[in-house]
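Posting for a labmate who doesn't have an account.
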Amino acid sequence: MPLKSFIEVSPDSHFPLENLPCGVFQPRQGKPRVGVAIGDLIIDLSALEELGHFRSTEFQNQRVFSEESLNSFLRLGRPAWRKTREIVQHLLSADTQILRDDARLREKMFHAQKDVAMKLPVRIGNYTDFYSSYHHAHNVGTMLRGPENALMPNWKWLPVAYHGRASSIVVSGMDVRRPSGQTKAPDAATPTFGPSKSFDYELEMAFLIGPGNSLGEPVPIDRAAD
């Protein structure tokens, strides 16, 4: 049986009660803080934190939702992530009176998504760009080495990854500037610097995969889910 919230959620919404993504938002009056999307609204986790809803042992006596990124929350690990989801689902449930029956409290807790600015959810020091699509790797390898040697012998066994440029990551909806670089016209003696005349793009998917590991200490396979 599907979960039901007292918040009206459109059937085609990406954010029903079963899917409660954390993010960082900034209301018109106030600083950025952590929230969770539900339908067309955002519930303010920093306000819930003020009321004492996140004081269980999973949160290790830390107040992580009034910060301007999810970094501290992510460092708490899976127990805190699950507990947060459990608490928020309970508060948004159609059967829970705490917010459902208190209009003044709801006014403090909820923000319309259209009225806030979304921020990058985490402070990104760096990221790993995995070269894991067979078709992409094969196509590129064919252009460089021909179809017979498109993939290096270890490609299927060794995860190939690159240290990505984190400084250019922006939040969804921001304009992306055409990059500049050097180009040389066929009849020119020297190259010129200016906006790229043509470029391609890739569709990539990013994941925040856990609280991290200490330098030089690999994550064992049996702990990968955490």
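Reply:
Got it, the structure tokens are right above this. Residues 125-168 form one domain.
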